[in-house]
C-alpha cells in the first residue's frame, strides 16, 4: 500500500491548473502550520484586539502598529490573522474527520460483508438511511444534538461521512470474501479479528481509500457551511466559514472585506483540495494502471 | 486429408517479429515466426501461457493494441500483404475473409440479444445486399449447420438459455456468417467439459470438410491438437521451435521442448477388458460405501439444493437445482480418493462441505470417532480446520497483501490445533521438500510463478497438519509442463506422511495416476464408483464409458 502511494505520487501529471493547485494547496498547508509565527495578531487573544478599530477598511494602520492589510472585522480582529488561524481549524477538522470517517466506515463495511445476516442488515440499513438524506442535513442534526465545539464538529462530520466508505468497502469485501484465500484463512480457524484485519480489510479498502482526498474537500465545505450557519466552531475561535458569516451582516453597508477575503481563501482551499484530490484519486485507482 | 498447397498458400506469415512497448520498456513478444496455411487446412499453434500463440492470431486479425509494434516480417493473405493495411482495410477483411472464435463463449455473445438476432445482425453487416428475410433464413441455416437442434424455435432464445457447448456453437455460427476463408480459433474448447469439447472439435472438422474453410487453432492442449489438426506449430517464448505435420510431431518430436510437452500430457491407461470378474464392488447408486472396515472419514446422505435467484418474494424464481443428492463416501485411512465429474456435477460443493466451508441441510460426516453436524457452520460444528484444501487457481488462493513467509507462518501458528500430529511443523524442511527456495519467503504472491504459488498452497495445507486434504482441481490453472510436477509432488508428499486425500478433477488421466479409488459424479449424484482399476477397465456404466471415450485417442493406451 505504502509503495503504491509513493509510486502514485511519483507519476505526476502535468498541466498548469494542476500545478497551480498543488502549489496553492502546499502554501495553504504551510501558512496554516506557521500561522502563530507569521500572523500579525492572535485573533483568539482579546488583549491583542482593539475594539475601536472594528471594521477598518483594508490598508488601515492600527494603533497597535499593525498594518491591517485586508482590514478588520466587526470585532476589530485583523482579517489576515483570522484567515490564517481559521485555516488551521478548517484543515484540522476536515483532515481528522475524513481520516476517522474512513477508518470507521471501512471497518463497518468490511464487517458487514464478513458477518452478513443481522450485522449486515443493521449496518447497511443505517447506511441507506443516511445516504438517503443530504449530507448537510445529517451534519446539521448531529451538531444540533451534540452542541458546539471543535471536537463536536469533528464527530458530526464523521457521522455525516462514514456511510459512503462503508457502502463501497462492503461491495468490494463481498467479492473478496468469496475468494479462495479467504476460504484458506477460514480453514486455519484464524481468530475472526485476524481474518478481518489481516486478510479481508487490506484487500478491500483500495477503492474506498481513493475517496479520501475528495472527501477532505467535502469536509472543508461542510464545516464551513455549519460554521456559516453559526452551528460549528465557537464564535471566539472562527474557522473560515464563521469568518465569512461574521461579515455577512456588513455586506450591505459596503464593508465587503470582512466576508470577501475569508470567502476567497475558502474558495481557493476547496478548489485546490478538489483538484489535487481528484488527481491523487486517479493515480491511486487500480483501474487506471495495472499493479 | 492434408491439403497439399501446390498453388500459393492462403496465408503466409514470414519472419514476423513483434514487440510490446510500454513507457520506456520494450519487451520482445514474437521473433521470426514463419508459417503457411493452405486452403482447408487446420493448423494448430501450441505452447504454454506467454508463448505468444494468441498474439500470432491477433496479429493476423489486426486486433493488436497500439503498444504492439511490428519489428520485422510480413503477413500475406491471398498473396497480398495485410500487415501494412489501414484499420479500415483490415476491417473489410475481418469477418468476411478472416474471422475468429474466442475461448469465453459467454463473453462472446450479447446477453440481452437473442442468439438468432446476433447471427442475423452479423449476416446483414457482412452482406448489405441481403433483405431482412434472407438474413433470417441464412441465420437459421447457420444455426442448423453448427448443430443447434430446432433452429427456428431456438432462434428467439437468449444466450443464457443455451448450454456452454451450444453457446460456443452459436459463436462458431457467427464466425461462419461471412463465409470466411480463415477462422482463427483461440482456445475454442478450453472452457468446455471434456465430452462437449469432443463434439465441438468434431463440428469444426466437419465444417472444414464441408466448406473448405481453413482454421488456425490456438491451444495449450496436446489432446486438442492430436484430435483435428493437420499441422502443428510449437511455440515457446515467442519463437516457433518446431513445425511439422501433426502425426510427425506426435510420433517423432525432434525438439526437446516438444518432447517435454508431449511427456507432460497425462495418459489414460485402459487395460484390456478381461472376463468380468464377480461383482467386486462398483455399481451405480445414490449412496456409495466402500468395503473398508476402518475408514478415516465417512460421509452419509449429503444433500443440498441451490435456490435459484429471482426477484423478491420468489417472483421469477425457477425450480431449485440439486447441488448434491444423497451422496455418501468412505475414505480409507492413508488413501487418495478421486472425484471426477463435469462442471456442475457437485464435486466442488461436496469438497467444500467435507472441509466445513459449506453446509448441507441433511447428512452427516464422521471423522474417526467424531461425528459432525453438517447443517451447522463448520466453525460451530468443529469440522472446520480438520480438513485443509488446495484450490484450483493459486493466483487467488494466496492473500496478495501478505508475503509467502507470513502466509506459511500463519498456517504453522494457527493451523494444526485440531490435527492429529503432535510434532511441530518444520518450515525449512517443508520448503526444501517442495522445492521452494527460501528466498521466496520475503516475496509477495504476484512475484511467483503459477507453479511456485501452487507449491506454496500445498505447503500451507501440509503445515497445518490436517487429517485430510481436499485438492480441488489443483492443476487445472497451471501450464501442462508444471501440472505433471505438481501431481507428482502431491502424490509423493501425501504418501510420505500417510495422509488421506480427496482429489477432485475433471481429468480422468490425472485421477488414474493419483488415486486408488474413484467416484464419478453426475448432476449431484454418484453415478459410478469403485477401485480405479475397475472403473477404467471394466465399469459398464454408460456415463463412465462416455467420459473415458471423450479422451483424445492419441493419449490413451
TrEMBL record, chain A:
<keyword id="KW-0812">Transmembrane</keyword>
<dbReference type="GO" id="GO:0005886">
    <property type="term" value="C:plasma membrane"/>
</dbReference>
<keyword id="KW-0472">Membrane</keyword>
<dbReference type="InterPro" id="IPR035906">
    <property type="entry name" value="MetI-like_sf"/>
</dbReference>
<feature type="domain" description="ABC transmembrane type-1">
    <location>
        <begin position="87"/>
        <end position="277"/>
    </location>
</feature>
<dbReference type="GO" id="GO:0055085">
    <property type="term" value="P:transmembrane transport"/>
</dbReference>
<protein>
    <submittedName>
        <fullName>Peptide ABC transporter permease</fullName>
    </submittedName>
</protein>
<feature type="transmembrane region" description="Helical">
    <location>
        <begin position="256"/>
        <end position="277"/>
    </location>
</feature>
<keyword id="KW-1003">Cell membrane</keyword>
<keyword id="KW-1133">Transmembrane helix</keyword>
<dbReference type="Pfam" id="PF00528">
    <property type="entry name" value="BPD_transp_1"/>
</dbReference>
<dbReference type="InterPro" id="IPR000515">
    <property type="entry name" value="MetI-like"/>
</dbReference>
<dbReference type="InterPro" id="IPR050366">
    <property type="entry name" value="BP-dependent_transpt_permease"/>
</dbReference>
<feature type="transmembrane region" description="Helical">
    <location>
        <begin position="91"/>
        <end position="115"/>
    </location>
</feature>
<feature type="transmembrane region" description="Helical">
    <location>
        <begin position="153"/>
        <end position="174"/>
    </location>
</feature>
<comment type="similarity">
    <text>Belongs to the binding-protein-dependent transport system permease family.</text>
</comment>
<feature type="transmembrane region" description="Helical">
    <location>
        <begin position="127"/>
        <end position="147"/>
    </location>
</feature>
<feature type="transmembrane region" description="Helical">
    <location>
        <begin position="195"/>
        <end position="214"/>
    </location>
</feature>
<keyword id="KW-0813">Transport</keyword>
<feature type="transmembrane region" description="Helical">
    <location>
        <begin position="20"/>
        <end position="39"/>
    </location>
</feature>
